[in-house]
Specification:
Blueprint (H helix, E strand, L loop, with lengths): L5 H13 L6 E5 L2 E7 L8 E6 L5 E5 L6 E3 L2 H12 L4 E7 L2 E8 L12 E5 L7 E4 L1
Antiparallel strand pairs: 1-2, 2-3, 3-4, 4-5, 6-7, 6-8, 8-9
Length: 135
């Protein structure tokens, strides 16, 4: 990990200390960090991927497309990941036909505002809360 920029190095060290027991795959992409934390039991979510950028942003996404979520900082990253891994937060990706309309995180599906004619895919870490909602 010697080739990482200083921002990515901080993220790398925090991920290592916060998720020491969690399987993951680290890679470096032009001094930026990409870390894949696979889900247990092959849940449809696939896993969470942390990615840093050269302009010091942190993105968190899951394996299905259109899932990138901008994270405000290191504390939020760790908190969101812990909540997702505990199945207290689900990932939601909304589509109107083939067009992506929304990516968000929710604690309760009743809090989701459904757009008429849209389809929302809910993904959970365990896969036990996965669901498709239609407005």
């Amino acid at each position: 990990m010697n080739n990482l920029d200083s921002f990515s190095t901080i993220i790398y060290k925090k991920l290592q200390s916060s998720f020491a027991d969690q399987d993951c795959a680290y890679e470096i992409d032009k001094e930026q960090l990409v870390v894949d934390f696979p889900c247990p039991d092959m849940a449809e979510m696939g896993g969470m991927i942390v990615q840093t950028t050269s302009d010091h942003h942190i993105w968190l996404r899951i394996h299905p497309g259109c899932s990138a979520y901008l994270i405000d900082g290191l504390e939020e990253l760790i908190s969101v990941m812990q909540e997702v891994m505990a199945d207290r937060v689900c990932w939601v990706i909304g589509f109107a036909g083939d067009e992506w309309i929304e990516t968000t995180l929710i604690r309760n599906k009743d809090d989701l505002e459904l757009e008429q004619g849209a389809e929302y895919h809910l993904y959970s870490w365990s896969g036990n809360l996965d669901e498709v909602l239609k407005a």
